[in-house]
Amino acid sequence: MTPAEPIVAVQGLAAYYGRTQVLFDVGFEVHSGGVTALLGANGAGKTTTLMALSGLVQREGDIRLCGVPGRRLAAESIARLGVAHVPADRGTFMPLSAEENLLLGAYLHRDRQQVARDLERMYAYFPRLRQRRHQQAGTLSGGEQQMLAIARALMLRPTLLMLDEPSFGLAPLVVQEVYQILRTVREQEGLSMLLVEQNANLAFGIATQVYLLETGRVVACGTPEQMRCNDAVRQAYLGH
Amino acid sequence: MDALLHQIISGIAMGGVYGALGLAAVIVYQSTHHLNFAQGEMAMFSTYIAWMLMQAGLPPWAALGLTLVAAFATGMLIQRFVIHRARFAPALTTVLLFIALLVIFNSLAGWLFGYSARIFPSPFGSGRAFDSALISAHELGSIAVTLVLVVALYLFFNFTKLGLAMQATAHNPMSARLVGIRVGWMLAFGWGLAAAIGAVAGVLVAPVVYLDPSMMSGVLIYGFAAALLGGLDSPWGAIAGGVIVGVLENVLGAYVIGTELKLSVALMLIIGVLLFKPSGLFGKPVVTRV
After folding, report:
1. Hey, are the CB atoms on A76 and B177 less than 8 Å from each other?
2. What is the pLDDT confidence band of residue B284, given thresholds at 50, 70 and 90?
3. With 60 as the cut, is the pLDDT of residue B153 above it?
């Protein structure tokens, strides 16, 4: 991978659930160290875009992930490229303990001491998870499960972290907490992010590049500043 | 009094074996929510392999070790080449597949080894344990093997990476794939493990009921009763359920209903559990907050 090449480069992406096409010619990039946000309403295809990148839905088009053609890879192999995906349902292993959930995030790593250090770092980012480490993950609150999902994804030591609406269903204060941690993580771990959001203000606050999706197509893109001035975005997402 | 005690002890020994077969069913059930009706016949076939190896002159323990390896490999192959292909099929298709496997293994054993019952020597010898009137060497050995099995599986599922990955696969396959677990192989490994545990049960049953192609048909019902009683999602429940079923079967058979009706105890248990406590005695419903 050349230094200038983006972490994610997608062109002409189409995705299908059975015979129903839900993505049409989607294209976007995530630059190294950058945060790309996919903004859109319910049903715009944001979640499907992440699932197409992870190999969880049937897809067509040109996908380059971490410098490798990714379209034919299975989900298990995409994880091996250093792509971590925090799914919309948070993907919690409910009956297992919080710490076991985190250790599963490090499934691909064999260096136990480094994994133990990673675990400590996660508990430093998310002190609440340390208190809950031996608790059954299914009994954690929504916010704690979201934190657990992010920490589990970070245990993979990803170069690309994909987040599917980390604000969904959380109280405003918890949302602030989660985004604050995401900003810290981005600075300290030096990773790139692909973020799916419905909340434009949250997305603009962290993103370097924003794409607006409507019914499976990219309808606008630009920097957060450019997007704030976009009439369509202002009316639909910012309410002024 | 001694007679009752003897019935209880041999019930525990036999119950551990039922529990082992139930455990095999639970391991498959946990990952795919399918009850493998062919689990018993696969165990029977493995027992024939052990018998064949011993006939060929191998020492009993070497034959048993090889049998476990063969059973494990067969279980994995069946999952990869048969069950895996039907993973999107409706539940009834899978049930038919299991019944087909049951018939295939039963007929294959009859065709290869004949239908007459054969004596299968216990790996623990045929004597009494410590010259005791209460317990035979085979019963003591069965109990010991069951205990070792339970401890080994507990350690495997809770303290090894592979065991944790198998649990993750059972609970949330999509999330498991996202952390890089090769879910297809985990399912195959689960089938291998179940087949090997089934083989252990087969080898422990055969000295008691004699080896013939239908020796597991009754044991499978006891095994399923054990798994249901313990709770289909609880491996330790299966063993505990097995012991309860084994003791009940023996004591009721000896003192209350007679040996002819023993199997109906298991069937009544199955119906009773399904009617009144479908999650079983030890199957805890997973607590989830939304």
Report:
1. yes
2. low
3. yes
Torsion of CA B32, B35, B39, B40, to 10 degrees: 170
What is the token pair recorded at A31?
A: 């630059």
Q: Over the stretch A56-93, which tens digit does the pLDDT of each residue have?
A: 999 999 999 998 998 999 999 999 999 999 999 999 99
Burial class (CB in 10 A: 0-12, 13-18, 19+), B287: exposed
Asked, for residue B281, whether it belongs to a domain, the answer is no
* Cβ-Cβ contacts under 8 Å, B180 against chain A: 76, 79-80, 107-108, 156
Give me A132's structure tokens: 């809950």
Please give the distance of CA A45 from its chain centroid, rounded to a whole number: 14
Q: Where residue A107 falls among pLDDT bands split at 50, 70, 90?
A: very high
What's the Cα-to-Cα distance from A136 to each of A46, B96, B212, rounded to whole Å? 30, 37, 46
Helix (H) or strand (E) holding A85: strand A83-86
Per-residue pLDDT of B230-249, as tens digits, reads: 988 888 889 999 999 999 99
CA dist A33 and A208 (Å) reads 9
Q: Is the pTM of this model over 0.80?
A: yes
Does B288 fall in a domain?
A: no
Q: Spell out the domain ranges in chain A.
A: 8-238
Q: Which CATH class is domain A8-238?
A: alpha beta
Q: What is the pLDDT of residue A5?
A: 84
Query: Residue holding tokens 């192989």?
Result: B185
Q: Which range marks the domain in which residue B226 is found?
A: 2-276
Q: Chain A within 8 Å of B160 (Cβ-Cβ)?
A: no
Q: Verify whether the Cβ–Cβ distance B178 to A85 is below 8 Å.
A: yes
Separation CA A102–CA A119 (nearest Å): 7
